[in-house]
Every structure is written in C-alpha cells, then in structure tokens.
Amino acid sequence: MQETLNGLEIVLAGGSGGLGSATARLLADEGARLVVSYHSNAARAAQLQDCATVLRADLTRAEDRTRLLNAAPNLYGLVVLSGDPSRVKDPLEFDTVARHAQEVNYLGPIQLAREAAARMRSAGTPGSIVLFSTMQAVSLFPGSTAYAAAKASLQHAARVLAKECRGKDNIRVNVIAPGATAAGMAEASIASGKYNHLIDQNLIPRFGRAIDIARAVRFFLQPDNYITGQVLSVDGGVTL
Range of 191's domain? Predict the structure, then answer.
C-alpha cells in the first residue's frame, strides 16, 4: 500500500472554511486530488480553486450528495467538515433549532459517509472516512443541547459504520472533535473572549490552530493507518 496521498481522490465536504482550507492546502501539497464542497459562501470557496475542484452541495439533499461523490469516481477518502452551531437564543426556538441541528450536523453527514462507504465497498477500495464532531459532544457544556446532541449522535453512528466496514472491506471510519480552535465555528467565540478563562486558568497552553486539525485529518487518511472507530479530541486538554 502506498505511503503518501499522491494521486488519491479525497472529498472535503463543507471544506471551504478555516479548518477545511488548512486541510485542503496540506493534502494538496502532498498531491491529493481534491473535491471541496461548500454550502453558501461561494467567494470563500473560490479561493481553493487552484488546488481543488469546488462545487456547491447541501448534504441534507440526496441529489447533492450523489453529485458530490460522482465528482470523485475513484474515491479514496471522505472528510465531512460541515456543520452548524445551532445556538438556541430563545427557549421557544429550541424545537426548531434542534430539528435543524439533527438534519445538518447528524443526518446529512452520516448519510454521506454511508453512501461513500458503499461506493468504496463496491469498488473494492480500502478507504478512509473522517467525520467532524466537537468538544461539546465529548464533555458537558451548558446551553449546547441542540448542537452537542446531534454531534454525539454522529459520533456513535460513525462507530457503528466503522464496525460495519472493518475486516476485509478495510474502510476506516474515525471522528475528530476539535476544541477551542481559532478557526471554524469557534473563531468568533475566541475573538469575543469567551474562552479566555481556559488559558487564564492554565487549562490549555494556547488556542488550537487550523493546522492542528489538518494534521489530525492527515493522520487518519494515511493509507496504511491501523485505526478505526475512534474519536480523537484535538483540544489541548479542554475535555479533560
């Protein structure tokens, strides 16, 4: 089995944000053939056109998931970075927000992962699937019910999929749970000072960087990696 990602087709679903862009650049530098999808920010996604095929996709729509996977006919890897913070500002909005969170943070990503795994299995391709969770699904954060519950569901479903794909299929499924990272959805919270206490109380040495997450993705994508069904917290120790 080859040691590098050179020439391997990898889809980064929802990969146009801060975490996805860092990951795309890291993988492209190694020669991976990338397909990057975005949901709404076309201008931001266009900045990756020099290293990836870029297209719009809503992961909650079956036809969009099919079109996204069709863009990588020799699919080796899938990384699903998409998500929504699903913040509940008014208790009366909880039902609406929670239902949306399940669609965007759980159902869309896990359906895409299962469809990708089916294609890999049909092609006889040993592959790697990496899903994104959050520190809020690993530890308890007040006010995070809608978001954390959907991501916790994703973690469990990913482990079930890993069990279904182990053995001769050799399709590995793992999850990354970022902590307070100065990119992606946590960027605004860090800028506002929300997580300053983590450093002030010496709970973490620094805030996470996008490259920390990108390196974790690259680790799971390694062709001869021997790890599956795991949740990796890349958080500097927050969830301890």
Answer: 9-230
Query: Count of alpha carbons within 13 Å of 100, Cβ hemisphere only?
Result: 11
**This model's pTM is above 0.85:** yes
Residues 104-137: pLDDT tens digits? 999 999 999 999 999 999 999 999 999 999 999 9
194-201 long-range contacts (CB < 8 A, ≥24 apart) are: 198/238
Q: pLDDT digits over 187-204, tens only?
A: 888 999 999 999 999 999
**Whose structure tokens read 């279904």?**
164
Look-up: residue for tokens 């909650």? 60
Q: Give the chain's domain count.
A: 1
Report which of 137, 111, 121, 117 is spatially closest to residue 129, judged by C-alpha positions.
Answer: 117
Tell me the C-alpha distance between 230 and 159, whole Å.
7
Segment (H or E) for 77: strand 75-80
CB atoms within 10 A of CB 56: 15
Q: Is residue 97 part of a domain?
A: yes
CA gap 181, 139 in Å, rounded: 16
Are 98 and 40 in contact, with CB atoms under 8 Å apart?
no
Distance CA 240, CA 231 (A): 14
- DSSP β-bridge partners for residue 36: 12, 54
Q: Is residue 205 assigned to a domain? A: yes
